[in-house]
Specification:
Number of helices: 11
Number of domains: 1
Shape: globular
Mean pLDDT: 95
Strand order of the largest sheet: 1-2-4-3-5-6-7-8
Protein name: Alpha/beta hydrolase fold-3 domain-containing protein
Number of strands: 8
Structural class: alpha/beta
Distance between the termini: 42 Å
CATH superfamily: Alpha/Beta hydrolase fold, catalytic domain
Radius of gyration: 19 Å
Order of helices and strands: HHEEEHEHEHEHHHHEHEH
InterPro entries: AB_hydrolase_3, AB_hydrolase_fold, Carboxylest/Gibb_receptor
CATH architecture: 3-Layer(aba) Sandwich
GO molecular function, one term: hydrolase activity
CATH class: Alpha Beta
Helix content: 25-40%
Pfam family, one: Abhydrolase_3
Domain Alpha/beta hydrolase fold-3: 106-324
CATH topology: Rossmann fold
Strand content: 15-25%
Largest sheet: 8 strands, mixed
């Protein structure tokens, strides 16, 4: 969607002036060109977003479903819900792994558990596939408010289990699985790390990009959060307290029955940071300096390190959530280089 100004000539979603001196110039330029003219989607009704989501799609959204080497398959969660997984296959003539079977990277998109689908991370999925010559699978998990918080993680976990058990059906190495996600997708990854460990399902690597790892749904103001970055960046661009409140309204349990069901889940579904973190798979954590989620992501990484988990924590300075989608900017390019390097090492490591 192109940028639009209102009747007074002002962009509907300008950068907060207090952050102008705190962000890289290429981030500012990208934002002003592609995002400032778009409406704040958290001010729209969920009904409008579901009906006309294409009108409000982020500039990085792409539909590659008709491209060569891209195939959609149907998988089922444990409760019988059927969802789509989009498989990005490498060109067997170019891939290091030839005709396969291929190592697998399973991706879980962001969007506050409320927005998102198979187009938001498509460019990143394609880039990983092309750089590493592996199979990338993107999961179209259930969203709130139509579905209770946690069902998205159920779908995602079902996908990981299915690939592990049935990888040969999609020309995949079921014993060479890595997972990753941005924002809410990072939260799902942190949940799955703990579920996989408990199920003795080996993962090579988990990539948690600008992840939420605590449950913000119980906070009523930024200072309720146990991390200073929520106060420091409460008015940041792309993700801020106002937008977080919108997501909370849609993913919080709606009644006592939903609350009881949610509270009965393992703590890793709600706040992975407070779960048992010993024995988790190798982890790469990306945070953004001007992101409310910065400190909790780094706290998760530090706790992993203290417990002997192999982890890399990288803070990308002078950018905000979710900078990695903004392909032309320098920090997004650095991010892609970093995660592909980490994935390549994890895939080739005999110790993983």
């Amino acid at each position: 969607m192109g940028s639009q100004n209102n009747s007074e000539g002002q962009a509907p979603n300008p950068l907060n002036p207090e952050f102008l001196n705190l962000l890289d110039q290429d981030f500012i330029d990208y934002y002003n060109k592609h995002l400032a003219g778009m409406p704040k989607t958290h001010l729209l009704s969920i009904e409008e977003m579901r009906k006309n989501g294409h009108k409000y799609a982020s500039p990085w959204c792409r539909d590659f479903s008709n491209e060569a080497f891209v195939k959609d398959i149907k998988l089922a969660a444990d409760d019988g819900h059927v969802f789509t997984a989009r498989c990005y296959y490498p060109d067997k003539k170019k891939s290091t792994f030839g005709i396969g079977p291929y190592p697998v990277y399973i991706n879980f998109h962001g969007g506050g558990w409320t927005f998102g689908g198979l187009t938001g991370d498509a460019e990143i999925c394609m880039a990983i596939r092309d750089r590493l010559g592996i199979l990338v699978m993107d999961i179209d998990y259930r969203l709130s408010p139509e579905n209770a918080f946690g069902t998205g993680a159920d779908d995602s976990w079902a996908a990981v289990k299915w690939v592990h058990q049935n990888g040969t059906e999609i020309n995949a190495q079921g014993d060479c699985i890595s997972i990753g996600g941005i924002s809410a997708g990072g939260h799902i990854c942190a949940t799955l790390q703990q579920l996989a460990r408990d199920a003795d399902l080996p993962l090579r690597l988990a990539i948690l990009a600008v992840p939420a790892v605590i449950y913000e749904g119980d906070f009523r103001k930024p200072s309720d959060a146990p991390f200073q970055s929520w106060v420091e960046n409460q008015n940041a661009t792309c993700l801020n307290w106002e937008r977080s409140e919108f997501f909370q309204q849609h993913y919080n349990p709606k009644n006592s029955a939903e609350r009881a069901e949610f509270d009965a889940r393992p703590i890793c579904y709600k706040s992975p940071l407070y779960g048992e973190l010993r024995g988790l798979c190798d982890t790469f954590i990306c945070t953004a300096e001007r992101d409310p989620l910065r400190d909790e992501g780094e706290a998760y990484g530090l706790k992993l390190a203290q417990l002997g988990v192999r982890v890399t924590i990288r803070r990308y300075t002078n950018v905000a959530h979710p900078f990695m989608h903004m392909a032309p900017i320098k920090k997004a390019q650095m991010y892609l280089e970093d995660i592909c390097g980490e994935l390549g090492r994890a895939i080739s490591s005999r110790e993983a």
